[in-house]
Amino acid sequence: MAAKDGLEADTEGQGGGVQSVDRAFQVLDILARTGHAGVSEIAEELGVHKSTVSRLLGSLVAREIVRQNNDRGKYQLGFGILRLASAIPGRLSLVHEARSILENLADEYKETVNLAVLRSNYAVNVDQAMGPSTLATYDWVGSLTPLHATSSGKILLAALPVDERNQIYKKVGLTSRTSRTVTDRVALEKELLSIARDGYAVVHEEFEIGLTAVAAPVYNHIGTVIAAVSISGPSFRFDPENTPGLIQGLREAGLKISAKMGYTGR
Question: Is residue 265 in a domain?
Fold first, then answer.
């Protein structure tokens, strides 16, 4: 053990500042993953001496990034992390972060791609990337679309607690847009359960005759659904469920946007 201590001391003397920063981040990763851990557990995972871990934890505790659980003597993330994290989301623009991903989707699948958020009981399209087709010419940006009749809306609805959904139903109703619109609350709730489980929503001519769309969720840094990314096209040519890789590609695109908004998937 003495040899190991000597090696650590020598390493820290040669650019040890960078190494200490790297180890501090490793400690934070361990605590984020496990919830709490003791000095011995962290030292064993990092492969370093307990005294090294103690010094790192001491510095993190002093800055309130980490705190010690007095009952069990273990460490967990502290409120200082919240101060740092809270400064990030407000400076991230969803539209800006998603733009290149929307364009890539439109280029790959040759259809219209939209990014929508929940506002005033409707899905509001906040950005759009157009596919190369001459038929894909309608500008949906700024449009208010019903939650229960659109793929993006169903993604946003599925992420809400039941009581919040019920309030929306009471305020705006489940009006029929086409003969295929789901207007029965029980049937809609059953569909939303499947959407939440599968991670995507498909609508066939529920909002507009001749229009098919599929959407996937976008999450923020705490895992809350904050938006939906969708691909839509004319029903005669756009069949997402039978287009190899499309739904998976859309879901992955949603996760890429989510990662830019701080989502880690944990």
Answer: no
Per residue in 123-156, pLDDT (tens digit) is 988 889 887 764 555 666 777 888 999 999 999 9
The domain boundary residue, chosen from 45, 60, 86: 86
**Which structural domain range is residue 60 located in?**
2-86
- Those residues with Cβ within 8 angstroms of residue 132's Cβ, 6 or more apart along the chain or in another chain: 106, 107, 110
3-state secondary structure of 117: strand
State the helix-helix crossing angle for 50-62 and 39-46, rounded to 10 degrees: 120
Q: Beginning with the edge strand found earlier in the chain, give each strand of the sheet holding 201-204 in spatial order.
A: 144-146, 122-129, 112-119, 225-234, 211-219, 201-204
**Final residue belonging to a domain, choices 51, 71, 86:** 86
Tell me: pLDDT of 238 over 50. Answer: yes
**Residue 127 or 32, more confident:** 127
Residues 6+ apart with CB under 8 A from 25: none
Question: Do the beta carbons of residue 249 and residue 224 sit within 8 Å?
Answer: no
Give yes or no: residues 57 and 113 share one domain.
no
Q: Is 96 found in the same domain as 69?
A: no
Given a contact cutoff of 8 angstroms between Cβ atoms, the answer to whether 254 and 217 are in contact is yes
